[in-house]
Amino acid sequence: QVQLVESGGGLVQPGGSLRLSCAASGFTFTDYAMYWYRQAPGKERELVASINANGGITTIFADSVKGRFTISRDNAKNTVSLQMNSLKLEDTAVYYCYCNRKATWGQGTQVTVSS
């Protein structure tokens, strides 16, 4: 069974940092690119970042997070991470991990940036 499980969300003050993790199971992790999306209240789900199968190519799609967010993966541990620095109020959202293997989504992890 293909499964993605996110963790690491929480409440953080503006300017703070969080590191999200996504643990993958049920498929050959090293065969697939991985993606982070987010969905803020009342908005459509947005692609934030991607990383290719071997981790050599990363792309930040959301202009609002460029220079602040970094995506990485550990193929030995079947995990993909999103390091989020200098968090802003507008980063508040549910963050989802995604893989093309059977179009699988994680359950999401809530990130709330608030003073």
Report on the architecture of this protein.
The protein is mainly beta. Helices cover 0% and strands 50% of the residues. It is built from no helices and eleven strands. Strands 2, 4, 5, 6, 9, 10 and 11 form a seven-stranded mixed sheet that branches. It has a four-stranded antiparallel sheet with strand order 1-3-8-7, with no helix packed on it. A hairpin with a 4-residue loop joins strand 9 and strand 10 (104-105). The mean pLDDT is 96.
Tag the structure with descriptive keywords.
11 strands, four-stranded antiparallel sheet, seven-stranded mixed sheet, 50% strand, 115 residues, mainly beta, globular
Give the helices and strands as they follow along the chain.
EEEEEEEEEEE
Report the radius of gyration as a whole number of Å: 13 Å
Mean pLDDT across residues: 96
Secondary-structure-derived class: mainly beta
Question: Helical proportion?
Answer: under 10%
Gap between N and C termini: 40 Å
Which spans of ≥5 residues are poorly predicted at pLDDT below 50? none
Shape: globular
Count of helical regions: 0
Beta-strand fraction estimate = over 45%
* Sheet having the most strands: 7 strands, mixed
Number of strands: 11
